[in-house]
Specification:
7-stranded parallel sheet, alpha/beta, Rossmann fold, 46% helix, single chain
């Protein structure tokens, strides 16, 4: 049964793979046998992640990437192909959140959220997708959010919510276009996960109390629980799954 989740011989490129959820995804896919390319804006965290993986005997590399810049994304894909000759898996994980009221969100903040959360996902899918379509094989997982399906409270975050809703629908659109050419495209929508960003939000008493009360399981998820969902979607266990948004939220969106 475990063979269906075996990624031996496959190459995974992970944007935002140097920290948080992305780093845990990199570790889990490596544990399943994949070689890993970390695409990360912060070069130091990318290199640290690679050091940890190579110490475990995993083939890994890091390439500094600004997903807001399509040329930077193309260069990251080229560097990965130069080293590994192929990319079987893309996980587009880089993202940010700005918690400001819609009426006072600056143009700069709005565009930065959209450029990282949405445009960065598209640039990554486009660059890697061309390679996958040529090979007629590949699997993409975009990291969305339950915020793409619901409106969080009490914190304001219209830009984030809109960007993640767009990621989910972009995922469906790519899945429909590319399914008959051998490329599967899915998204994962985490709820409140115990990353450093979420933990900072928990320190605001009204926020943390509401988040946990509105999550039926009554706790934060862990990055590893999101990574396990990614492993399913990129493995042969999900060979008939495309265009799906897999919500991992402890039941938050079930109310």
């Amino acid at each position: 049964m475990q063979k269906i989740f075996d990624l031996s011989g496959r190459v995974a490129l992970i944007t935002g793979g140097g920290r948080g959820i992305g780093r845990e995804i990199a570790a889990m896919l490596a544990e399943a046998g994949a070689s890993i390319a970390i695409s990360e804006l912060d070069a130091a965290s990318g290199e640290q992640a690679v050091s940890e993986l190579t110490a475990l005997g995993v083939q890994a590399m890091s390439v500094q990437t600004d997903v807001r810049n399509p040329d930077s994304v193309e260069q990251a894909v080229k560097a990965t192909l130069d080293k590994f000759s192929k990319i079987d898996i893309l996980v587009a994980c880089a993202g940010i959140c700005v918690n400001t009221p819609a009426e006072s969100t600056t143009t700069e903040d709005w565009l930065n959220v959209m450029n990282i959360n949405l445009n960065g996902v598209y640039w990554s899918c486009r660059a890697v997708g061309r390679h996958m379509l040529e090979r007629r094989s590949g699997c993409i997982v975009n990291i969305g959010s339950m915020s793409g399906s619901i409106v969080n409270k009490p914190q304001p975050q219209a830009a984030y919510n809109a960007s993640k809703a767009a990621v989910i629908h972009l995922t469906r659109s790519l899945a429909a276009e590319w399914a008959d050419r051998g490329v599967r495209v899915n998204s994962i929508s985490p709820g409140y996960i115990g990353t450093e960003m979420t933990k900072r939000g928990l320190s605001v008493p009204e926020w943390g109390k509401t988040w946990l009360e509105m999550t039926p399981m009554g706790r934060l998820g862990t990055p590893k629980e999101v990574a396990a969902a990614v492993l399913y979607l990129v493995s042969d266990a999900a060979s008939f799954t495309t265009g799906t948004d897999l919500i991992v939220d402890g039941g938050y969106t079930a109310w």
